[in-house]
Specification:
387 residues; alpha/beta; eight-stranded mixed β-sheet; three-stranded antiparallel β-sheet; 13 helices; binds pyridoxal-5'-phosphate
């Protein structure tokens, strides 16, 4: 069968591939600890779930405005204004089923074939896929382990060209957990203004940061609101991955275009899901905050344990729920190491699932119980002993 060139190079996410391999081993009776799928292990807080159920029972199961319920757009604008220190109007907010459409549609709305888009490598695989489908030319820029996986600014400067139209940032990052510090954001912001390009800032882990150190948003820097698309959502902060609820914040004219794409491709986001999201934002935040405290405990436990394993070194991630240990001392590829660990009962992702610069690293999700993390460390020690 022949397909259009824009979809020919699409591949599934690495996490699903490893999950399928792990499940095949489980079907043979093997016990596998799952540290490959990046989602909270906590249930959706019950007050949020109850709001969604009540909305279904009250018949909020119909079409609604493509850009989202006005009350939710208002709540998102209020929340983003307060947390990021910028003035956001509800008309700048586009609600979507999950954050992903707000990566995809703004890219589609801005990129002409041949336009260059800078994106992080290692990075969330949907960036490269989205850029390619939009007809853009992806220009990967490395993240530097030595700076806590911030952007390599020298490589960034070399990657800029007159064709650069969009810069994708992700802080805190999947897969490294790195946060881009303010001076680095200032450097990138200055370049974006000089080159008159857009910035797509994926801030879906903005509420998951540790040691009371928030991740700054590039949108809060002078001159940046008018050229930034903030992507965020409810999946990670409120443990709502399966509800599918996210949003983008962008200049109004772009929000209108993105809403039109959403109108024709999706229609709208389920109303009862949005009602649940409204409860998430307007209701008590203690459960969301308790999750972050627990992730921090688990991070400390896992990273300390990883650093005691032979030939492994791991920086403490400043955000998200991913550890990204360096395994280069073992001289195995990331794929080969992930495969050995899977055979030893621990499912992790090779760093290369996030781009070729992920070679030499693994991604471990610590949104898992302390017991499982402890068992995973024991199993990893056993695998490494036998190498
Ligand atoms: N951006 C990043 C960096 C992610 O890690 C994810 C999910 O793993 C998403 C976006 C997508 O979020 P959602 O499930 O809300 O579409």
């Amino acid at each position: 069968m022949t397909f259009a060139s824009r979809v020919r190079s699409l591949r599934p996410e690495g996490a699903y591939h490893v999950l399928a391999r792990a499940q095949a081993l489980e079907a043979q009776g093997r016990d596998i600890i799952h540290l490959e799928i990046g989602e909270p292990d906590f249930p959706t807080p019950s007050s949020i779930a109850r709001a969604g159920i009540a909305a279904i029972e009250q018949g909020q199961t119909r079409y609604n405005p493509p850009a989202g319920l006005w009350a939710l757009r208002e709540a998102i604008a209020d929340d983003a204004s307060r947390r990021r220190g910028i003035a956001v109007r509800p008309t700048q907010v586009v609600v979507s089923p999950g954050a992903k459409p707000n990566l995809f549609f703004p890219t589609l709305a801005l990129i002409e074939p041949g336009d260059e888009v800078i994106y992080p490598d290692p990075g969330f695989p949907s960036y490269a896929a989205t850029i390619r489908v939009a007809g853009g030319v992806g220009v990967p820029v490395p993240l530097l382990e030595s700076t806590g996986f911030s952007v390599d600014l020298d490589a960034f400067d070399r990657a800029l060209s007159p064709r650069t139209r969009l810069i994708v940032l992700n802080s805190p990052s999947n897969p490294t957990g790195g946060v881009i510090p303010r001076p680095d954001l200032e450097h990138i912001a200055e370049a974006a203004q000089r080159h008159q390009c857009w910035v797509l800032s994926d801030e879906i882990y903005a509420r998951t940061t540790f040691d009371d150190q928030p991740a700054p948003s590039i949108a809060s820097l002078p001159g940046m609101v008018e050229r930034t698309i903030i992507v965020d959502g409810f999946s990670k902060t409120y443990a709502m991955t399966g509800w599918r609820l996210g949003f983008g914040i962008m200049p109004e004219a772009l929000a209108e275009r993105v809403s039109l794409l959403l109108t024709h491709a999706i229609g709208c986001t389920a109303e009862f899901t949005q009602v649940a999201g409204l409860q998430a934002l307007r209701g008590p935040q203690d459960e969301a905050e308790a999750m972050v405290e627990e992730y921090q405990r688990r991070r400390d436990f896992l990273v300390d344990g990883l650093n005691q394993l032979p030939g492994i070194s791991c920086r403490k991630p400043a955000g998200a729920f991913y550890a990204f240990p360096n395994i280069q001392a073992h001289g195995l590829t990331s794929e080969a190491m992930a495969e050995r660990l899977l055979e030893g009962g621990v499912a992790v992702l090779p760093g290369t699932a996030f781009g070729f610069r992920g070679e030499g690293y693994l991604r471990l999700v610590f949104a898992n119980s302390m017991e499982n993390l402890a068992r995973a460390l024991e199993r990893m020690a056993e695998v490494l002993r036998r190498l």
